[in-house]
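input
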Amino acid sequence: IYSRYHEDMGHVFNQEMTNHIQLADNVSVTSYEDGTNVYVNYNYKDYVTPDGITVPARDYKVLR
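output
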């Protein structure tokens, strides 16, 4: 788990968060200063954003 997290998000460690939005119940997106967006879905089914990005259930998705 650590290796996956480090590979996916290690680059945002010292970056400032620029935004945090609740997209739906238990689904959020956090934006960082380099433009990275981290989507988190705490639900038990996949979530599709209005932009068509699928965030797997009980998982996260990083877009750089």
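quick obs: The two ends are 20 Å apart (CA to CA).
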